[in-house]
Write a structure and sequence with these properties.
alpha/beta, 208 residues, globular, five-stranded parallel sheet, 55% helix, Arc Repressor Mutant, subunit A, Rossmann fold, 2 domains
Length: 208
């Protein structure tokens, strides 16, 4: 079981898709899949929900990135970034309608992609958790067969707020490997498989 954030890449240019995959693999993310058209994208979203998605707007298929984003908003509610060669007013106006968490214009570099993705995930989590009650260790542990430790709860809170593993390590003053070990334990105890799944599970436990 991986505790890295799982990212779906939707990009019809194989070279660009592979570059994105390399950037993510090198920076504490896991590529859940690469979809080269809308059909593959919808299949992945339905069967293997990622924690976030990077979407090319213009795809060589019946539906485009805007259509995929609309599905994400209606069905699974995860953060997504648009990646496109176009920044004209018409494209921007269409993109605004589905409220992306970020917008990157090609060509781009590794730093731009990663910064945009991290900000998008963090902002999305903050916005969606703002209307949710604050996590309570006592309440969550009441519903778990094996309770979270103090440190695990601290890590779970940071993950819940959209903080990536390396930043959790910095804020907690412990190693990245230790954070990954804590997250593995948290996933097992809460019966979650992804970061998105953990957030949903914690919300469910708080609502009981």
């Amino acid at each position: 079981m991986s505790n890295k954030l799982k990212i779906l890449i939707v990009e019809d240019e194989p070279v660009i898709a592979e570059n994105i995959s390399i950037y993510l693999d090198n920076n504490d993310f896991e590529v859940s899949a690469i979809a080269y058209d809308s059909d593959e994208a919808f299949l992945e979203l339905k069967n293997n929900t990622p924690d976030a998605a990077i979407l090319d707007i213009n795809l060589e298929s019946d539906k485009d990135g805007i259509d995929i984003a609309d599905y994400i908003n209606k069905e699974i509610q995860i953060p997504f970034l648009f990646l496109t060669s176009y920044s004209d007013k018409n494209t921007l106006d269409k993109a605004k309608q589905v409220k992306p968490s970020g917008y990157i214009v090609k060509p781009f570099n590794e730093r731009t992609l990663l910064a945009s993705l991290e900000i998008a995930i963090s902002n999305f989590a903050s916005e969606n958790n703002s209307s949710q009650p604050k996590l309570s260790m006592e309440k969550i542990n009441r519903h778990l067969l094996s309770p979270l430790t103090d440190r695990e709860f601290e890590v779970a809170q940071l993950a819940y707020n959209g903080i990536i593993n390396s930043q959790i390590a910095e804020q907690s003053f412990i190693s990245l490997n230790t954070i990954k070990t804590h997250l593995k334990s948290i996933y097992l105890k809460t019966d979650a498989n992804t970061r998105y799944g953990l957030i949903v599970r914690l919300r469910h436990l708080m609502a009981k």
